[in-house]
Amino acid sequence: MFKKAAVFAVTCGALLVGCSADPQAENEEIISNLLEAGFPADDILIADDAVYVGRDAHVTLEASREMLQATSESPEQYRTTNLVGTGVTKICVNSTAAFDSYTFLSQGLDLAIANYNERGLRITFARGPATGCTANITAQTTTGTGGSAGFPSGGLPYGIINIGTGLNSYSADVNEHVITHELGHAVGFRHSDYYNRSISCGSGGDEGDAGVGAIHIPGTPTTAVVGGSIMNSCFRSTETGEWTSSDNTALDYLYGGTIPSCSSINFTSYRGQNGTQIRCSCPATSSGTVWGTDLYTDDSNACAAAVHAGAIPSTGGTVVAVIQPGQSSYTGTTRNGITTLSYSAWDGSFSFQLPPAQSCSSVSFTSYRGQNGTQIRCNCPATSSGVVWGTDLYTDDSNACAAAVHAGAIPSTGGNVTVTIQPGQSSYTGTTRNGITTLSYSAWGGSFSVSP
Question: Considering the entire predicted model, what is its pTM?
Answer without folding.
Answer: 0.48
